[in-house]
Amino acid sequence: MSDNSNAIAPLDASNKYNKNTVENTLTVTGTKKRILLVSLFTNFFVLLALYCGVISVLLPNHIAQIDPANKANNLAIVMTTALLFTILAQPIAGALSDRCRSTWGRRSPWIVGGALLGGLAIFGISMATTVAGIAAFWLMAAVSLNCMNGPLATVVADRFRPENRGIASGFVGAGSTAGGTVGIILAGYLAWNLQLGYLVFGLAIAACCLAFVLINREPSARTLPTEPFQWGTFFKSFWVSPREYPDFGWAFFGRFTMYLGYQGVVTYQLYILQDYIGLSVQESNYAIGTISVITLVTLLFSGLISGVLSDRWQRRKIFVFASSVLMAAGLMLPLIMPTLTGMYIYAAILGLGYGAYTSIDMALMTQVLPGGGKQAGKDMGILTIATVLPQSFSPILSAWLLSAFDNNYSSLFIAAIIFVFASSFFVLPIKSVK
């Protein structure tokens, strides 16, 4: 049975798209807003738990079991393979979701479909006995989950008023950072049984996204007008001119540079504990869990405090700038103290900076979208490339640095410091956001 109250308003009498009416129908308030906030927290918690648990722990352990001597290069191959095919997955999925006209809305079909296919592919990795097999299944998972992630992130721009996007960003940031930490902890304890680890993460993302669309029913999009489709116009829309939209460009490059430095260390954290700090395989799997707990505590504290202060003062840039500088400072600790204690202090400082960064960054992003967010799905997908691309590219850079500097992991920290510190200055020229 259809629910007419969930249908998006049709065209008005003059056959024009009544944008305000549609936005008011999409916007959530009261109890629905609170439920959506909790749902966003939960979904991004599970999604980032999967990404970080699989990328930082399960894949490195799996690859090391197959070919211990070439583990660093093989990990780079697996991540690079996914990069080549997923770099445009989010913006394309976002653009197609902008045009989606289903009874379940524009975003929900992509959220559910991507999660189900991605979860199945994650479990498929556990069946792989070669590096090529791991790469193939991870590619399928990465593409599917990216097609889900873009439309899911667009929910913030779709369904929250601009004045409420700070708190929405805070929930997404808190869920993401906490999920990433818990995912590494959980994966560390499941590393003894890789098949179980992959199964847990695959089932979790599929169930979570299905529950999300059922609980937070998106209004039907069947009555929305659709502009004529032209391939040339479609592909040209993915180029957002930095000259015409400079704030969008600065935000993109700032996020890209920050994640390039951050991911370069986090992706190789297990190998850092083994080959730089000198722990055994078992010790490093447990130590990475302790590091993640420390990071979780500090990032939750900084994320909540910075989110409240940012909304109260209506300032975004200063928080993004300061958090990037703090992260760069944290990355210096393992160079000064190449011990497990140094890694613990590094984790605490990095958590303070990363928690503040992620809790404010999305709110800033939604405020620099071209045309006020007219094509939010596509544009948020483009901005997400600045997160996805470094996740795939940083292992290549890290593997090259390790090869160039005789497997000296201090080179990874030096490169990370340079990139993260540099990223703090990209936010300063943004004019449309304070």
TrEMBL record:
Report TM segments: 35-59, 75-96, 108-128, 134-156, 168-190, 196-215, 252-274, 286-306, 318-337, 343-360, 381-403, 409-428
In terms of Gene3D superfamilies, this protein maps to: MFS general substrate transporter like domains
One Pfam annotation reads MFS_1
Residue ranges of every copy of the Major facilitator superfamily (MFS) profile domain listed in the record: 37-434
**SUPFAM superfamilies given in the database record:** MFS general substrate transporter (SSF103473)
Q: Which UniProt keywords apply?
A: Cell membrane, Membrane, Transmembrane, Transmembrane helix
**Source organism superkingdom:** Bacteria
Q: Tell me, what is one Gene Ontology molecular-function annotation carried by this entry?
A: transmembrane transporter activity
Per the record's keyword annotation, is Chaperone included, yes or no? no
InterPro entries to which the protein is assigned, alphabetical: MFS, MFS_dom, MFS_trans_sf
Q: Which PANTHER family match?
A: MAJOR FACILITATOR SUPERFAMILY (MFS) PROFILE DOMAIN-CONTAINING PROTEIN, PTHR23528
UniProt name for this protein:
MFS transporter
Q: Which organism is it from?
A: Kluyvera genomosp. 2
